[in-house]
Amino acid sequence: xxxxxxxxxxxxxxxxxxxxxxxxxAIKIAGLDFMSNFFxxxxxxxxxxxxxxxxxxxxxxxxxxIHGVLTMYERISKAVSDSVKNNFFPxxxxxxxxNAGGTIAGLKMAKPKSKLGVxxxxxxxxxHTPFTTxxxxxxxxxxxxxxxxxxxxxxxxxxxxxxxxxxxxxxxIGNIGQKVLPEDVVFISLRDFEKEEKYxxxxxxxxxxxxSEVRRNGAENVSRKVLRYLSxxxxxxxxxxxxxxxxxxxxxxxxxxxxxxxxxxxxxxISKFMQNRKVCCFEITEVNPTLDKENxxxxxxxxxLQRSVNILMMN
Length: 315
Hints:
The protein is 39% helix and 14% strand. It has ten helices and eight strands.
């Protein structure tokens, strides 16, 4: 049986829309509304955010609040690394997806010799860099930091030296350069990305499984295919951005996109992944209750969280 540890990261400084820092509490409220005692079962740790930066002027337009994101990477990576070293399975509830860069770093810091696979269930590729970003929002960049990719071939911005310096620190957090090989990343339900990101996906041949394939072949077959594809990896991290769900249900997130997964499809898929012994960490991110009615997004996230953890407990 796995020892679960909840790591709460109420940080939203990487997002473009305000409110994701409240997502962690919203998921807890959903648990209370379902009369669940889930959140008193497990040890938990809350990571101090840097959300005060939201009130300060932007210094790096192509990597907004990047100095704060670096601080978050440092805090999250230490918490995740310590948890793994102490034989916990970290389950991370985070505000925006930029935090996942810190999670990946922590997994690698705990097991520097591991070959880490990443299953990224998300409408977006999060492969932008300060040189290519259309928005400057750091939640569009965590996979680029993990695979240590600048994508200078697609460069559209001249970035100032200070930003570049911090960007390089993000890529080398924990004194480890590339944390994940591009061929060890799998995107599921990816459907909203820019040509600069498409360039990286094609350059590295990154695996993409569209929503249509999940619908056509079912969670069982898709999970088997993904795990077979990542069979060389020693450890696998699953990151679930709620905007992977279809926009008809994912109202409570900053960047909803149509043609996404149904709630049951996401739940079944993640449950299948959780049965695999190589999976070492699970993260749920981008719940924004300020955009939602009746806390629906958080309720869906809680259902997925509870079912996933139950499977981990049984394994």
